[in-house]
Amino acid sequence: MSASAPERILQRLDWHVVRRLDGLLQGEYRSLFRGVGIDLAGLREYQAGDDVRYIDWNVTARMDAPYVREYNEDREITAWFLLDLSPSVDFGTVGEDRLKRTVLIDFVGTLARVLTRRGNRVGAIVYGSEVEHAIPVSSGRVAVLRLVEDLLDQPMLDRAPATDLGVLLEQGLRTIKRRSLVVIVSDFISAPGWEKPLHLLNRRHELLAVRLVDPREVELPDVGTVVIQDAETGEQLEVDTHDRAFRERFAAAGRAREAAVNAAIGRAGVDVMTLSTQDDLVRAIVRMASRQHRRKAQA
Predict the structure, then answer these.
(1) Between 281-298 and 100-116, two packed helices, what is the crossing angle to 10 degrees?
(2) Single pTM value for the model
């Protein structure tokens, strides 16, 4: 009996991605996944390098010196994936196997596999044209297969209402009660207003925010007449990419969209990492781990 599509994907990720990560990160997955328990262990004076988010301001005011809360760290991490599968995620110019959607599935499958191999639990909330459904947290290889199968079954939408990422983030705030690792994967092409719920998620949970990008979203090559389609509305337009002025207008519009997204991310106070359709997944995850490690060392 041949393996199912989720099983084949998981086998490929185990062999080509997870094994390489094991060698490169040498088990230091805590650079990405810290896992903080909710049980207060006690208070102590602040020391250089402590996370300022754990300063107890009431005690600090009474003692006239900064004090931080200490927690018992969970052996088990509960991870929630908040996943944007709106139409714009079905864009990609490297080939059908490198759509932003397929990169998302590989990335989520890899992280879920790494987490569950260590006894942790994973769940997900999926957004298409709206919040479609939640996948309850569970552990083990079966949990990863279920997650990958669910993402493969999520239909590609020809058109949909304008993406509202805030709806997904607000659903995450309502659903995830206990402090968890929250992994948001989106291209952040959305109606405005998602900064506040993103900021609140970052305050309440250990947050890993990943932005999916494709290089052709900001730059068109000179390849003659092509048909381009708005992934959100389905509207199509025939354009001549030989026209230098058009390519420059397209690039300017792409830069403006990038600036708007970056400004919104800045207002949310969140460090969002980029994952391109052209990235090698192993190198991208190692880059993320290194960046997380530097941030925690500087906190």
Answers:
(1) 60
(2) 0.80
Reduce the DSSP state of residue 38 to 3 states and report it.
coil
Query: What ranges do the domains of the chain cover?
Result: 5-30+76-217+272-298, 38-71
CA angle, 211 then 272 then 220, to 5°: 40
Q: Which residues pair with 80 in a beta bridge?
A: 123, 182
Distance CA 211, CA 34 (A): 21
pLDDT, one tens digit per residue, over 270-283 is 888 999 998 999 99
Q: Which of 3-17, 128-142, 229-243 is predicted with the least confidence, judged by mean pLDDT?
A: 229-243
Q: Which residues contact 197 (CB under 8 A, 6 or more apart)?
A: 166, 169, 170, 172, 173
Q: 101 is written with which tokens?
A: 């959607």
Q: Which two tokens stand for residue 146?
A: 């279920």
Q: Which CATH architecture has domain 5-30+76-217+272-298?
A: 3-Layer(aba) Sandwich (3.40)
Burial of 252 (0-12, 13-18, 19+ CB in 10 A): exposed
Give me the residue label for tokens 């990160």: 25
